[in-house]
Amino acid sequence: MSRTPSLNLFVLAFLLSAAAMSGCSDSAFDSSFVYSPGTLDLMPEAQNGSKDVHGVKALLDERFGDPQHLEAWLKMPIDFGGTMTTVGEITTAESGIPVIKLGVEEGISLPEQAGSIQFVSGACAGETLVVSQWDPKTGEANLAAAPSQSVASGDICFIDRGTVIQSGRMLYMRHCSHCHGTSGDGNGPTARYLTPKPRDYRNGVFKFTSTNDMSKAARDDISRVVKYGIPGTYMPSFLLMKDEEHNAIIEYVRFLTLRGEFERKLVAELSSDYSKVALSSRLKDEKKADILKELNEFLAEDLKESANSLGDELAEIWATSDTEEALIVPSIARIPDSTESRRRGRELYLSKALNCADCHGIDGAGNGPQTIAYEKNPTTGQLYNEAGLHDVWDNQNQPRNLQLGMYRGGRRPIDLFRRIHAGIKGSRMPSFKNTPHEDIWNIVNYVLSIPFETEPGGTGIAPSAAAAAVTVPPAN
Amino acid sequence: MKKFWALFFFFWPTVAMYCCLIAPSRGWWFPSPPMSRTGVQIDGLFYLILIIVTITFVGTQYAIGYVLWKGATKEQDSKAMFSHGSHKLEIIWTIVPSFILVFISLSQLDVLAEIRVISSFPEDAQKPAAKIAEVMARQFEWRIRYAKPGTDLTTEPSPGDLYFVNELHVPTGKPVVINLRTQDVQHAFFSPQLRVKQDAVPGLVIPVWFDVKEVGEYDLVCAELCGWGHYKMKARIVAQSQGGVDNYLKQLEAEQNEDGTKAESAAE
Amino acid sequence: MNQLTFPTTEVVLKDPMKSVSLLAMLGLILFNSGCGRVPDFGGGASVVPEVTFVAAESEATADAPEKSTGAAATGASGAPGTFSGKVVMTGAVTPLPALIGKGAEVKDKEVCAAHEVANEKLVLGPGNAVQNVFIYLNKAPKGGKSLEAPTEPFLFDQKNCQFIPHCAIVPVGQLVKVLSNDPIAHNTHTYPSKNPATNSLVGANDREGKVSFTYKKAEPTPFNISCDFHGWMSARQLAIDHPYAALTDENGAFTISDLPVGKHFFVVWHEGADGGFVERKFQVEIKSGETTEMQIDYPADRFKP
Fold this sequence. Notes:
The complex is a heterotrimer of chains A (476), B (268) and C (305).
Chain A (H helix, E strand, L loop, with lengths): L4 H18 L14 H4 L3 H5 L7 H9 E2 L2 E5 L9 E10 L5 E5 L13 E4 L8 E8 L4 E4 L12 E4 L3 H13 L1 H4 L38 H10 L14 H32 L1 H7 L5 H34 L17 H12 L5 H5 L52 H10 L14 H13 L15 H4 L8
Antiparallel strand pairs in A: 1-2, 3-4, 3-8, 4-7, 5-6, 5-8, 6-7
Helix pairs in contact in A: 4-8, 5-8, 7-8, 8-9, 8-10, 11-14, 13-14
Chain B lengths: L1 H25 L10 H37 L13 H21 L1 H8 L6 H4 L4 E8 L2 E6 L15 E4 L1 E5 L4 E7 L4 E5 L4 E5 L5 E5 L5 E7 L12 E6 L1 H15 L12
Parallel strand pairs in B: 1-5, 4-10
Antiparallel strand pairs in B: 1-2, 2-3, 5-8, 6-7, 6-9, 9-10
Chain C lengths: L8 H6 L1 H19 L15 E5 L4 H4 L18 E10 L18 H4 L21 E4 L16 E5 L4 E2 L2 E5 L3 E4 L7 E5 L8 E4 L8 E4 L8 E4 L7 E7 L4 E3 L5 E7 L2 E8 L7 E10 L4 E9 L6
Parallel strand pairs in C: 2-17, 4-7, 6-12
Antiparallel strand pairs in C: 2-14, 3-13, 3-15, 4-5, 7-10, 8-9, 8-11, 11-12, 15-16
């Protein structure tokens, strides 16, 4: 013990500080968006293009960028953030840098904070200037540095353009990406531990929507899911998030969704002729050089051109899905919940005309005969390895056990009405939009009563003769 | 140099005593003032322990300092006293701490019983009407179930129950009881300001009572490492007047019976 | 290690420099362990991304050439011609057994197994002629006629748990009405690659066609339509935006008329063929005003039951 602890202390201190520093490097690794399997199944020349023509990857990156450098494609129905305003009077500060008065239009509300101004018209178009001082009352912005060209009154500019998508990206990475993945592919680091799998946004399909069966999800639908979570899955509630954070995340989710869907649409243009599989079968009859020439022509003319029209299609359907037009509004108010209504609901539930029991089982336990049948993958025609229903993400998909009283898409009567009316998108639950609304309400009343039945089918009616003919495995 | 060490060991207990004395007034001891009645009692127990620990720590440290000082100022060739194996001392330092520990454990029994033992709950908390909600913890959120307004909460869901997530509304100024449950793993219902902390154990329905003194929003977090998303389990307890809670439940009931035919359904 | 001598604690304390460095070291540990900020997850949660704006119409398309058409069309002119012919399976052909025998134990057997249901994946006519083969041009040829979508709806029926017709070419813009002749519910689930998918319940004996939809875009290949209630039910439809497509009839015959003069490359597609394509580029030369007759061979080994 003649050796004192001082050297040990030094060594320890050194090791500890080295260990502590290693987790703290400034050079954070860059994250990146992944390409969909569809893209990676294309022949490499279609993915990457050549030096003259863009392939799928470049067309996509050009419009959506990567997580560090987002591209905001103005065609997309996304609120990227920012307040559009017109330049008014311009004065010059003592330093010689102009002071710009903004928000001269009537009825415009200026933001409380302003960090930058981006010009979209005038001599400075495209230039972004940093605001050193901002007065939201008068709309006077002092600039940190003079613009390269002179700003003129009447120029149109944005205050803090793109800030919503920026903060959406940051919040998404903190709260969402560990399950949903950086690209929104539902394949984040924790995804492998979860059942059901986190949503892969890239199909452009969200299951629980208030919109009709042919529409996409409205912002409100994504919002509800983020706010209240999805019971029965790992999606938790983010109720305590501030409104602006919440909205930024929704815009970013839309951004990732549109990116994924745009990629799918590009791939759909190419995959029948230029996938790796197509190439190998084509090489039996054709020469590779001919195929490449044809591909290059296709990429240079058709695909480049259709990229914009594909974007238009996407923009249109997502924008209209967010309007009243797409919203499902029952034509009649909910039928008051009564034994009579439930009885009618149960009859419909068991009827051959609606076939609810086929999947959900005669007592609502989610164990109808379809859950033990082997299905074919509708796109490949191959039988799935396991019995039961599958969704568009090729995951096994259980029909809801209605006895649990757990409703993933919400438990309000209108939520159940919409689930039945529009179906559950991406799943095998079809749309019952042509069923009279009165019948749907009766089914809603029956379904809401299932968890409280004293015995299965306890509303007092035996399964009808037709329903009895369906072979149903006994519950449990 | 020896005197330096002796003074060194006098210095630290003095600092410690100073810190302990000013800690309560500086708010170093608790995250916030106690916002519930049991919170006041629990804080009292903490103060009691703080006092005992301060006296013990400072006393023993001064004793060490005193011994060092004596040693430092002694003649170089004086003999040391050999006290090892003294039965008297052994008995003293066994008996004294055990008395302190027994004192601490006895003095907190009443408070513990009031918090944990159903038959010792305040009378008001034992009435069925005091049971305001079921709090179902799950990975990683708090699912709240209120009884249909005008009815008592049932242990298992009943038709007409109202559901919400991550926000619990409680009336102030009277004991309320929640049924704490978990759907999956262990969680713990913890509100630092209300000084409520109770594990949720799979398979058990645990009644937890507390009363909130003032209207306001309080944190509700999970205090049991429950999985990778443990940190996400943050919710809020909204304390309101009874009238405010009733209004809230009425509004919740209206929302939950939404049939989408009204105009505002679009906004919701 | 023992042969080395180390400074004693006393030395450390006597030497102010060493004490300072010790404290500095400890301070460093505390400082570093906190790092003062959240470690970046892939540069994600704390690094502000750059945002650049891309105009809605990228200039790449502003001067895009007029929509180019057809690979064919060598500029030759003349009266349009006709391409007709027959698809014949060559090699050893084994007809498929019936999909569902009469009275077989299947779901809804009183309806679905009322008659024998043939397997329509391969329907052979006389001389091994193959029915339900799609023959079409990928793109409208230059100088070709434009499509006139029929105003009357295309009726897509089902009877005894079979879609009727099994295969169809549906012009873009034509209304598809789904009917049912069965006293049970069906659902029509489409799997197009460019158009939005439909998954809708078709009520029992629906003769009105309450479920209806329209294809807005041409599809590259015929896509699958299925009924989730009756997994064996399937149909194929090709949405197309020009009139140059045909489906072989029960004799395996087809006719495509009004083709501009020149070389054309037809896609020959059959659901049973491995990968779907019988021929990806079946070359046909159309001469002014003439009918070109060809037989398309469908090698039996290309068929995957």
